């Protein structure tokens, strides 16, 4: 294949790169959109595919827009922000269909994929930020931002339009005052330096912020205490500052060792008229308004099809699904392996005066192994890796009528659906939601019949 080519982008890959075809060879090109005619340089070629680097957009696709972020091309967070939002929704539906196999001659599973339900906010929607931290070589100023695509080089972000503005202000303040307290940025290669990450959780409802400083240490020094207090005192919106201890050579951001330095160690968020508490290390959807859409959708489905059902809420986090469904259920059992989440869920039950939800801090498959109960509905909301076959087998045994599978990874979702179908279940439909605007990620709710 020639080194420089002019090609037309015909579709988008499941990882957000444009796809062109030349002499039967598939070429992936980042930062391109279906309909673009582009000049590219081939930078990698294998037997099955090639990778091209965009040199010039010769004729732009009608779906191209000016991205709202000036850093879009260098930052790895929003791969498709330069594509019109309505077209992004269509592309996400197609990504799910591709995993299902709808557009291939032999479909893996026979299921309808619905149109993607948009996110109510497409700016400032992301309410959890996790910035890796390093420092400049000479002046030792902190660098904070997202990684460049496929690298661990940090883009020093001063303004990010997808998160609340307060996050930029807090991060800028941290950059400014770090040297006053001798706080060094982390050097990943040498495993030296103190501050590894700053994690901020923001409540969409109250505007409260919880800041967590992830440090390469095992104890809290006087300096870090004063640094935390300075951040806490400087912002009315910051209700607490915590320190998380992570002195291991690992890509894991947070460990399970967190200490509160000032204020409280949670923020309060309100969804579906329920007040939730979110801690530094508890799972909670990053886009609260889109999450609320999903909760309402699932609740409406259950209300229309059941009268006071029993519900098993697996991979429960702070039991968000279980708690939101509790007023239309006879009884809910929520199971989550993270103890911090279950403790916060206990508080939520108390604050909201809910008494038909039982909480268990344990592995889902283990709970299912031990239980003798059966449930009308099981809600599965596993992490990106999906469910194990063991967990799916046991889910089938305890579920009388429907499984509602909520997934943030269509690849593992389809694998698990194929397994459930091989055991006799029937998949009704897949409803995609846009939770992660401007990226190729897509959240799906799938209704499965086990009767
Ligand atoms: C995608 S989150 C869903 C949380 C919750 N349903 C929500 O909507 O906020 C997945 C959750 O599963 C938990 N988890 C992961 N593996 C688990 C397992 N084997 N058993 C129980 N919980 C698990 C994680 O800690 C995380 O809170």
Proportion of residues in helical segments: 10-25%
Supply the number of structural domains.
Answer: 3
Alpha plus pi helix count: 9
Report the CATH C-level class of the largest domain: Alpha Beta
**Biggest sheet details:** 8 strands, mixed
CATH superfamily of the largest domain: Vaccinia Virus protein VP39
Q: What is the distance, rounded to the nearest whole angstrom, between the alpha carbons of the first and last residues? A: 54 Å
Bound molecules: S-adenosylmethionine
| C-alpha geometry | globular
CATH topology of the largest domain: Rossmann fold
Structural class: alpha/beta
Strand percentage lies at 25-35%
User: Mean pLDDT, rounded to whole units?
Assistant: 95
Strand line-up of the largest beta sheet = 7-21-22-20-19-16-17-18
Q: pLDDT under 50 segments (min length 5)? A: none
How many E-type strands?
22
**Gross CATH architecture of the largest domain:** 3-Layer(aba) Sandwich
Radius of gyration: 23 Å
What does it look like?
This protein is 24% helix and 30% strand. The protein has nine helices and 22 strands. The mean pLDDT is 95. The protein is globular. It is of the alpha/beta class. The protein folds into three domains: 1-64, Nucleic acid-binding proteins (OB fold (Dihydrolipoamide Acetyltransferase, E2P), Beta Barrel); 128-271, OB fold (Dihydrolipoamide Acetyltransferase, E2P); 287-449, Vaccinia Virus protein VP39 (Rossmann fold, 3-Layer(aba) Sandwich), CATH 3.40.50.150. The chain has helices spanning 85-100, 165-177, 222-234, 288-305, 320-325, 339-351, 364-370, 389-398, 410-422; strands at residues 4-8, 11-12, 18-22, 25-29, 37-45, 49-59, 112-113, 128-135, 142-144, 195-202, 209-215, 238-245, 258-263, 267-271, 274-278, 310-314, 331-336, 357-361, 375-380, 399-407, 426-433, 443-449. The strands form four sheets. Strands 7-21-22-20-19-16-17-18 form an eight-stranded mixed beta sheet, with helices on both faces.
């Amino acid at each position: 294949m020639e080194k420089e080519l002019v090609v037309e982008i015909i579709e988008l890959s499941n990882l957000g790169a444009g796809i062109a075809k030349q002499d039967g060879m598939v070429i992936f090109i980042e930062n391109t959109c279906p309909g673009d005619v582009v000049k590219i340089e081939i930078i990698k070629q294998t037997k099955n595919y090639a990778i091209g680097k965009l040199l010039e957009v010769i004729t732009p696709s009608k779906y191209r827009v000016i991205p709202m972020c000036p850093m879009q091309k260098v930052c790895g967070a929003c791969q498709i922000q330069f594509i019109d939002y309505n077209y992004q929704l269509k592309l996400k539906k197609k990504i799910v269909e591709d995993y299902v196999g709808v557009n291939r001659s032999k479909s893996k599973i026979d299921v309808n994929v619905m149109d993607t339900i948009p996110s109510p906010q497409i700016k400032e929607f992301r309410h959890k930020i996790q910035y890796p931290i390093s420092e400049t070589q000479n002046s030792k100023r902190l660098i904070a931002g997202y990684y460049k695509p496929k690298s661990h080089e940090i883009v020093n972000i001063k303004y990010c339009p997808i998160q609340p503005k307060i996050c930029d202000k807090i991060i800028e303040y941290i950059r400014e005052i770090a040297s006053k307290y001798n706080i060094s940025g982390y050097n990943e290669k040498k495993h030296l330096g103190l501050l590894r990450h700053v994690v901020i959780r923001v409540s969409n409802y109250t505007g409260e912020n919880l800041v967590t400083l992830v440090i390469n240490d095992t104890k809290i020094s006087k300096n870090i205490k004063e640094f935390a207090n300075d951040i806490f005192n400087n912002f009315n919106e910051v209700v607490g500052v915590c320190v998380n201890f992570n002195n291991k050579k690992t890509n894991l951001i947070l460990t399970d060792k967190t200490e509160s330095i000032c204020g409280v160690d949670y923020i309060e968020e309100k969804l579906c008229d329920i007040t939730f508490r979110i801690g530094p290390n508890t799972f909670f959807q990053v886009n609260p308004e889109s999450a609320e859409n999903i909760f309402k959708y699932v609740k409406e489905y259950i209300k229309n099809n059941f009268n006071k059902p029993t519900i098993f809420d697996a991979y429960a986090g702070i039991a968000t699904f279980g708690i939101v469904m509790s007023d239309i259920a006879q009884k809910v059992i929520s199971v989550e392996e993270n103890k911090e989440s279950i403790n916060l869920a206990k508080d939520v039950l108390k604050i909201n005066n809910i008494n038909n939800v039982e909480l268990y801090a344990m592995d889902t498959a283990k709970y299912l192994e031990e239980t003798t109960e059966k449930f009308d509905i099981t809600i599965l909301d596993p992490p990106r890796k999906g469910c194990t076959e063991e967990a799916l087998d046991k889910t089938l045994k305890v579920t009388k009528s429907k499984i509602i599978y909520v997934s943030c990874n269509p690849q593992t979702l389809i694998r698990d659906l194929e397994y459930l179908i091989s055991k006799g279940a029937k998949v009704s439909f897949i409803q995609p939601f846009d939770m992660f605007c401007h990226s190729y990620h897509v959240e799906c709710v799938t209704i499965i019949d086990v009767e």
